[in-house]
Every structure is written in C-alpha cells, then in structure tokens.
Amino acid sequence: MHxxxxxxxxxxxxxxxxxxxxxxxxxxxxDDLHRVGPVEAFISIRSxxxxxxxxxLYALQGALLDVHWNDLDPDLKARLASEADRxxxxxxAR
Length: 94
Hints:
This is TfoX C-terminal domain-containing protein. The chain is mostly helical.
C-alpha cells in the first residue's frame, strides 16, 4: 500500500511525511503503532538516523489518544520525553 492510502493518515497529528517515516520502520497501521507504542516507534525512527524532534514523539502519542499533540498533558509529555531520552542514552552506551 502506498503511504498516501495508509489508515495512519486518518489519525490526528499525522501527515504524509510522518506516515512515510512510520512506514520506513514497519509501522503501517494504528494497531502497529499501538502495539509498538510511541516511545519505541520514536526510538526506531531515531535509530534509522532520521532526525525527529520530540514533537513527533508527542504527535504519535496524540495520534493514539485522538488528541492534538499540543493538548497533551505536560506531565505526559515529560514522561514520554524522559523515557525516550533514557532509551536513546542506553542505546548509545552499547
């Protein structure tokens, strides 16, 4: 399926560029994103050398919750960022 026909485009916060990136790491549906989770998806993206900002991390969480990323609770954003930073640091240390 071409990314422009992906069900991911129906999710809040995700445009064609984000969907292309998700497809590049094997996430092709909402179920895939839910199963992997936003932090692991973000880590996979960054591990491929794609320079994604925290906004993408928040957008992925918001997509699962059907909430604009900017409306996520600040504590949730902090927890997501902390977990992503922890995992990225651990992967660099290996």
